[in-house]
Amino acid sequence: MNFDDNPQEAEFRATARTWIGANAPKQYEDELRKSSLGRTQLKNANILEVAKAWQKRKADAGWACLHWPKEYGGRGSSPIERVIWQQEEGPFGLLSRMFIIGHGMCGPTMMAFAREEHKRTYLPPLASGEKIWCQLFSEPAGGSDVAGLRTRAEKDGDDWIINGQKIWTSGAHYSDYGILLTRTDPTVPKHKGLTTFFLDMKSPGVEVRPIKQASGASDFNEVYFTNVRIPDHQRLGEVGDGWNVSLTTLMNERSAIGAAVATGFPELFEYCSSLMLDDGPAIEDRAVRSKLANWAVKASGLKYTSMRAISALSKGERPGPENSIGKLVAGSMIQDVATYALDLQGAGGVVSGEDGELAGRFQAMLLRAPGTRVEGGTDEIMRNIIAERVLGLPGDIRVDKDVPFNKIPTKGR
Amino acid sequence: MNFDFSDDQKQLRDQARKFLTEKCSPKAVRVVLDGKAPYDKELWKGLAEMGFLGVAIPEEFGGAGAGHLELCVIAEEMGRANAPVPFSSTVYLAAEALLIAGSEAQKKKWLPAIASGEAIGTLALFEGKGNPSPESVKLTAANGVLNGVKKPVADGAVADFAVVAARTGASGRDGDISLFLVDLKAGGVEVKSLANLDPTRGQAEITFKDAKAEPLGATGEGWSILIQVLDRAAVLCAFEQVGGSDRALEMGRDYALDRIAFGRQIGSFQAVKHMLADMYVSATLARSNSYYGAWALSTNAAELPEAAAAARISATQAFQHCAKNNIQVHGGMGFTWEFDCHMYYRRANAMALGLGSLSYWEDQLIDRMRKKNAA
């Protein structure tokens, strides 16, 4: 058991550190380090432009998408090298947030299912950040129940015609391409009639409407499809096999490990270390210490769980469903930490934004936190995954499993 | 980086699990639970023969000299089996105190006897309610003898010797505390067994009346040695707790698959599934924190104090959480004497207190984190 780099890893780390030291956009380092959880913004610069410039610079020097094969714009690195890179990249890694879905899910899905010429055309600009990708899965009628989606794809000669609506699409408003899951046969049970495509988000008939969230930000979108044409050669996998294709996409989501999971704990500890309460320093208050200690061991538990996962990965083991715990634990922890930080502020805690304590850092965290517990699978879905796939408990009863999709009731009462 | 046990260490774990499954069935644990024996002597002998008692004791003192990662692996299995033997008192507390502060002669006398199973040791620290603190130590040492009362002393009724914390100065500050080795079979020592939450590991009251004692470590160094001993024991106990958590989770899972209600396996109800998922989460976090503790323990890293406190808190919470919800999954059967659930519930709650309660370790963790941040 050790945390030491072996000689190759040490050399990789030194090379990465030198290059990052010479090339990273240092003028933003401090601002990135102090940015609010779940939301990265820059005061005097367009975050998207800064992110794209940094990604391009990395790509030109061979540091983009480390784990991807070289021919598609990656570096062919080992999982451990990828983790070392993330450690060295530090706060600049936050700039990769707009590329996460493209790099973590869309790229690998393209690699697994697209034609070779498409891979060579589309993957390098995805790796370099020149083109941004999104993932069009969720729908108003199917959030947790992804396979309940209703967006139709109908064959028309060599094309498919798409009609329907997606929702909760991260970054659709600045994406160039998307991976789209559709229903191609409503007469068979829901998992069997799905088909996956990729498409140009600028295609005629695609309309993106940003959703204003509870936090006031707009990271997600509704996307409407009206007679959108997709050529058949942009189909990923077989007709009717869309569910399996999407599972590959979601499995890849889990392998995006290594980056520290945001829990809100370092922020709270820092805050309590300097905060004065009426009867003395917060950090010396028994109740505060108890709360902090409880969250400290959750945060460290997640950190070392991730280290264990990285070790397993480096021995060639695949990341498994046990990695669901990071999101499950961190999601509600962020929410609880923010609530507690505001409780410590008392009545003044209601003031947010620039007018608030610490420029409203915890207020912003509180308003963003509900999203963290829902996106990428709700807490309840995460618990089901652990119960069923790790502990081997029976699946939930699914009354619609063997029913043709068009015979499934759509309304309660 | 390799944040996992080695293949050899995993083999040792398999070996220990196989041994304990055979020699330490719930039926065997019940012999002690029902008060028919103070501890499982056959098992103790077997553990010595397997080399488990001296796994981290150097070869020159009769041990296997393997190391503390190996001891962590054994500890996990001891917790899993709910072993009714004075393992933690002897191996984590007494042996570690000797390794840290013992003279050559003291090590030569006691460590081989521990490794061979001939001597049972313990730590006599507490004097009634409360958590570890120099102020709470009232027992006095003067002119080579001890006077005072210690309770509870884990495994005190079966121990051959004890490491005793005594006051050697007037103020009761940490520089006034020293450690002593006492032969509990000698004169001036009275031992009384106490009823306790977990009868599979006895607790005793020990009264010292002019009991002969020899210093362990330098005078006035007692508290700083104790803190090291408690930190090291915290990591080792955390592995027992992790083993216990996993076993309680398994029992709950197996029952949820077995038991039918409303025409379905109860494990198909989301409320039950989610309870078991949360048990898995807490056990996993505890395991990961304990691995960090194991790394720090085995390398004597500067991070040990913080890592030990984190492992202690996390593993205590996980074992309590898993043990109580295992009973909940079992429903009414879960709190019968006949089912094994209560053995883990007892152990979890007794272990939560033995090295100082959660609130003590929470304070330790925060103090240590502050110190690190200030450095």
The CATH superfamily of the largest domain in chain A is Butyryl-CoA Dehydrogenase, subunit A, domain 3
Helix content of chain A: 40-55%
Q: CATH topology of the largest domain in chain A, anyone?
A: Butyryl-CoA Dehydrogenase, subunit A, domain 3
- What percentage of residues of chain B falls in helices of 4 or more residues? 40-55%
Helix vs. strand class of chain B: alpha+beta
What gyration radius of chain B follows from the Cα positions, in whole Å? 20 Å
- Which CATH architecture of the largest domain in chain B is right? Up-down Bundle
Low-confidence stretches of chain A: none
SS elements, strand count of chain A:
10
SSE string of chain A, helix = H, strand = E?
A: HHHHHHEEEEEEEEHHEEHHHH
How would you spell out the order of helices and strands of chain B?
HHHHHHEEEEEEEEHEEHHHH
The end-to-end span of chain B amounts to 25 Å
Number of domains of chain A: 3
Pfam families (chain A): Acyl-CoA_dh_1 (PF00441), Acyl-CoA_dh_M (PF02770), Acyl-CoA_dh_N (PF02771)
Domain Acyl-CoA dehydrogenase/oxidase C-terminal (chain A): 240-391
Domain Acyl-CoA dehydrogenase/oxidase N-terminal (chain A): 52-130
Family (chain A): Belongs to the acyl-CoA dehydrogenase family.
